[in-house]
Amino acid sequence: LAKTTQPISMDSYEGQEVNITCSHNNIATNDYITWYQQFPSQGPRFIIQGYKTKVTNEVASLFIPADRKSSTLSLPRVSLSDTAVYYCLVGDANSGNTPLVFGKGTRLSVIA
Amino acid sequence: EPEVTQTPSHQVTQMGQEVILRCVPISNHLYFYWYRQILGQKVEFLVSFYNNEISEKSEIFDDQFSVERPDGSNFTLKIRSTKLEDSAMYFCASSTAGAGEKLFFGSGTQLSVL
């Protein structure tokens, strides 16, 4: 499984765009990149998944460069409720049972 | 959006006792997982379950632990002879097509072993 590296913490003011970058230098050809969000005392929640280029949904955008060795989660105009831990995971979407391994994630604190 | 349901939300037990944590995965999902998170630490994989059998398990998932899907809807994690270090939040998750797909997590069971 490809190892991921992301900043331990980030701070942002309300209304700003937040970009969290994750490094995954050993990503394999079949691996997808998935981001989860976790609030205190809750289970992780899927945010977005991508393979290459750019993916956008109602919550976030995911930018993946051509070499796929990194990815950036972009949260537009964050609010206080976006304060959470964000995890970047890399895994084969066709792997069946091979489990996702969570790292320490990035703790985002949004300040009023 | 469909939800994974876990009960109880909190469980307090004495060291050495057995506990059963219950989960109801999303109805059309085929892959089931248990994770745990000790306070302040990362989410750790315990076990995955597919086609009525364990498909992967971590080093944490030793003989003290077992999983079962007794009736086609519930998915349980049993911890025999609990230890103090088993105190953690336990999360159940399910997916349609494996871990590489979107995992749906429950809200967790906070287990406290005294």
Search tags:
heterodimer; A: 112 residues; B: 114 residues; mainly beta; seven-stranded mixed sheet
Quickly count the helices of chain B.
Answer: 0
Task: Summarize the main sheet of chain A.
Answer: 5 strands, mixed
Provide mean pLDDT of chain B, rounded: 92
- Major sheet attributes of chain B: 7 strands, mixed
Pattern of helices and strands of chain B: EEEEEEEEEEE
Description:
The complex is a heterodimer of chains A (112) and B (114). Chain A is globular and about 40 Å long. Chain A is mainly β. Helices cover 0% and strands 48% of the residues of chain A. The relative contact order of chain A is 0.34. In chain A, a hairpin with a 5-residue loop joins strand 6 and strand 7 (70-75). Chain A contains no helices and 9 strands. The mean pLDDT of chain A is 91. In chain A, the strands form 2 sheets. Chain A has a 5-stranded mixed β-sheet, with no helix packed on it. In chain A, strands 2-7-6-5 form a 4-stranded antiparallel β-sheet, with no helix packed on it. By secondary structure, chain B is an all-beta fold. Helices cover 0% and strands 49% of the residues of chain B. Chain B contains no helices and 11 strands. Chain B has strands at residues 5-7, 10-13, 19-24, 31-37, 44-50, 53-57, 65-68, 75-79, 88-95, 104-105, 109-113. In chain B, strands 2, 4, 5, 6, 9, 10 and 11 form a 7-stranded mixed β-sheet that branches. Chain B starts with a strand and ends with a strand. The chains are: A mainly beta (112), B mainly beta (114). The A-B interface holds A 32, 34, 36, 38, 41-46, 49, 87, 91-105 and B 4, 31, 33, 35, 42-45, 48, 50, 55-56, 58, 89, 91, 93, 97-108, 110.
